[in-house]
């Protein structure tokens, strides 16, 4: 779930309805991932990067430069 600006997205725990914050780049806007949920990619509009998140641990593994407004 994008945070609506800032630098946080949230992973939802559907059993407890708890949002688990994950710090990513500036202004996360787009989110995609693998069908099994093991990898999540978040594009960060204001710093031109993508954050690659481990879907199991919710840890950012890499930040990749993409250019203006990915």
Q: Which features would summarize this protein structure in a list?
A:
about 70 residues; mainly beta; four-stranded antiparallel sheet; about 0% helix; globular
Could you explain the architecture of this structure?
With 70 residues, the chain is an all-beta fold. Helix content is 0%, strand content 51%. It is built from no helices and six strands. The strands form two sheets. It has a four-stranded antiparallel beta sheet, with no helix packed on it. Strands 1-2 form a two-stranded antiparallel sheet. The two termini are 17 Å apart. The model has no long low-confidence stretch (mean pLDDT 92).
Would you spell out the secondary-structure blueprint of this structure?
Blueprint: E1 8-13, E2 18-23, E3 28-33, E4 39-44, E5 49-54, E6 60-65
Antiparallel strand pairs: 1-2, 3-4, 4-5, 5-6
Helix content: under 10%
User: Tell me, what's the shape?
Assistant: globular
Strand order of the largest sheet: 3-4-5-6
Q: What's the rounded overall pLDDT mean?
A: 92
Helix and strand pattern:
EEEEEE
Major sheet, described briefly?
4 strands, antiparallel
Radius of gyration from the CA trace?
11 Å
- Count the DSSP helices: 0
Q: Which oligomeric state applies?
A: single chain
Distance between the termini: 17 Å
Could you give a quick summary of the protein structure above?
This protein has 70 residues and is mainly beta. The protein has no helices and six strands.
């Amino acid at each position: 779930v994008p945070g609506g600006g800032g630098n946080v997205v949230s992973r939802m725990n559907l059993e407890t309805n708890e949002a688990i914050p994950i710090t990513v780049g500036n202004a996360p806007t787009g989110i995609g991932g693998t069908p099994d949920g093991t990898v999540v990619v978040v594009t960060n509009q204001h710093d031109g990067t993508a954050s690659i998140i481990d879907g199991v641990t919710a840890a950012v593994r890499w930040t990749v430069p993409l250019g203006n407004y990915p």
